[in-house]
Amino acid sequence: MLINAQTGQLSPYTWLFWADEGGVVNMVSYLSNSTSFLEFQNILNTQQRPTRSWDGHTTKESAYFNAMFTWAQRSILGFPILGNIRERHYGMYSFVPNVRSHFDYGTWLGIDYPAFSDAMTQTQTGAPLVGRFTPPNIPDIVISTHPVHIAPHALAVPLCALDVLDENVLRGLFEKVLLLKTDTSGVWHPTYSQDPFGFEVVASPYMNVSNYPGADDGRYIFETLGNAYTALSIYEGLQRYSTRPSRTFGYFARQVPGYADKVTQMLNYAYQDVR
């Protein structure tokens, strides 16, 4: 993750723009007055990724690794999904097309659960379950090998954009979650007993694999991070979807003095040509 998006050269900055942790850290640093706007610009300029397309889906500032969990972070920070034309770049031109591409990618691979995300606590033959390229991506690499594991929380993260997802995608998400909950592999734990409540951190990408063994650590492994993304994504989506004024993450972020003005300033710089 040290490659400059524009030049292909190693960058002095170690994280990506907007969709990943580094872009969020850069935003928080500026919002909290820990860095100057010039420093924000310098970091962003080496992080920002170009627009990419795949199978009819075009995603703005596409992440290097399009793991689904990273797309929730801007929402949790309070970054607007809807609003003026620049704000819509995140929700309508980045997040939503990426969700659609995940579904089509799963169909292209021939798997049942297109839940592509990182499972950072797990390994397969000693290698961390991170960094799978999912389209659209930066170097135009589309992995055609079928994944051995998927991360169920990736099916909940798109609900951050609940109110702007089209009906087909939304129906598809719910159908996949319901299938996974009744799957004979047993990765869903509906009650609290000796195991935590919810999905295990990894699952089979295929339906009803009753002998699914899990990753290196085996079965009945739960990840707090995955559960947090599930809960926070659903919270944000439902709050915005509500017909009455609700306290979204954006509401809380706007309580920070100067937040709205700085977000506008960042958007105006990042999207100088909104066309």
Can you characterise this structure?
- This protein has 275 residues and is mainly alpha-helical.
- The protein has a domain of 192 residues.
- The strands form three sheets. A two-stranded antiparallel ribbon has the order 1-2. Strands 3-4 form a two-stranded antiparallel ribbon. A two-stranded antiparallel ribbon has the order 5-6.
Task: Write a concise synopsis of the structure shown.
With 275 residues, the chain is mainly α.
**What order do the SSEs take from the amino end to the carboxyl end, as H and E?**
HHEEHHEEHEEHHH
Tally of helical segments: 8
The helicity comes to 25-40%
Query: Low-confidence parts lasting 5 or more residues at pLDDT below 50?
Result: 13-19
| Oligomer state of the chains in this structure | single chain
Globular, elongated, flat, extended or rod-shaped: what is the shape?
Answer: globular
Structural class comes to mainly alpha
- Give the terminus-to-terminus CA distance: 28 Å
Count of β-strands: 6
| Mean pLDDT over the residues | 83
Biggest β-sheet: strands ordered side by side in the sheet: 1-2
| Strand percentage | 5-15%
